[in-house]
Amino acid sequence: MQRTRRSEGFAGSSKPFKTQGSARKRRRLRDRRKTEVTRTESVAGDGETLEIVAADYLGLPSVTRVAPRWRIEVVPRAPRPDVEDLERDWVATVAAPAFRLLRAERGDAACRRFLALGAGPGVDALAALELLGASEIGLTDLFEDVVAAAERNVRRNLRQGEQVVLHAGAGDLAEPLRGAGVVFDIVYENLPSLPLAASASLAAGRNAAAFFPPRPEPAPAFVANWLLTLHYLALVQSRAILAPDGAVVGAIGARMPLGALSDMAEAAGYSSRILTYGWKAQTDPQALLPVYAELHERGFGPFRFYPAGRLEEIFAGRDRAKLGRDATAIERALDADRLDAVAAWREFQRGMRIGHVVVVLHATVRA
């Protein structure tokens, strides 16, 4: 499936995002955004439609290229944006600030063509339209219905008079657009990391934190150990559709040493750096922490978790534009508070809130 329509760019803000300076401020921001952002409606087939106030979701005073209010169709096999609590939402708290940094660093011309690998409902593409000034958008996901809904979401939520060239395809990572005669300045991925349990079916629902069992493609052993296989394959496949000066930008829940990410990029033929660095509370800890603990006991990892209160303390007040540069020092500062997966699961059961760090990795093909 491929659709095209002409598009125009825009001049938007590249102001760096600064983390909130206190837990009280963060809670106040979270509560305000929670009440203003969402309304849900059920749709056929157990999907739903979300209504999102775009400026609140993207952390902007106003929007210029996308509609002020989005109506986002979420089909059953697509991950659902966490609009009830934007502190938990990856686009609102990770992708949007990273896109502002990217545009400030690269300039408008180097952000024009944007591909979302694993596009889900398409909200990362809408963020790219507004924050990167993208005028040509690629969308891929594993399932045809997910891609079709993402395409509809992008088209229906453009501001009136705006146009965009869309390239959409269902299939594995970058493969649907390989050979289509298009290249991209930025390939963005926020892909899952956990291997899918043998009894689960990927087609059965929103396995946002899992993917199908081991891939047939070769990958270095350390990549599999740190559950980075899908991120590694995204790098490998993106080489065929990346513009000469393009970058692959991955938003990764980094439950591993930072060095494992740079080693992964190098193994795939890239040079890399940390664009920005942050943290998130562990999503669905009751269900997912035991999975990480089991994998730990099987010899994977050891994965890295932290008390959420300590993460909140160490990241408070920091300028996001400088966090990538400071990531190694922050990692060292957190070392004494590190929990492996078994300890994190135990402490969660005792009432501790558990979090992990988040890396936005910027990778370019090595000369």
CATH superfamily: Vaccinia Virus protein VP39
Outline the biggest β-sheet.
8 strands, mixed
Determine the CATH topology: Rossmann fold
Strand content: 15-25%
Share of helical residues: 25-40%
Q: What structural class is derived from the secondary structure elements? A: alpha/beta
Distance between the termini: 33 Å
Mean pLDDT: 86
Per-chain topology:
Layout (H helix, E strand, L loop, with lengths): L22 H15 E5 L5 E6 H5 L10 E6 L15 H17 L6 E5 L5 H9 L4 E6 L2 H13 L8 E6 L13 E6 L4 E2 L14 E2 L9 H5 L3 H10 L3 E13 L3 H10 L2 E12 L3 H13 L8 E2 H8 L4 H15 L6 H9 L4 E12 L2
Parallel strand pairs: 4-5, 4-7, 5-6, 7-10, 8-9
Antiparallel strand pairs: 1-2, 2-3, 10-13, 11-13, 12-13
What would your notes on this structure say?
The structure is a single chain. The protein is of the alpha/beta class. The protein has one domain (23-365): Rossmann fold (3-Layer(aba) Sandwich). 35% of the residues lie in helices and 23% in strands. It is built from twelve helices and 13 strands. The chain has helices at residues 23-37, 54-58, 90-106, 123-131, 144-156, 221-225, 229-238, 258-267, 285-297, 308-315, 320-334, 341-349, and strands at 38-42, 48-53, 69-74, 113-117, 136-141, 165-170, 184-189, 194-195, 210-211, 242-254, 270-281, 306-307, 354-365. Strands 4, 5, 6, 7, 10, 11, 12 and 13 form an eight-stranded mixed beta sheet that branches.
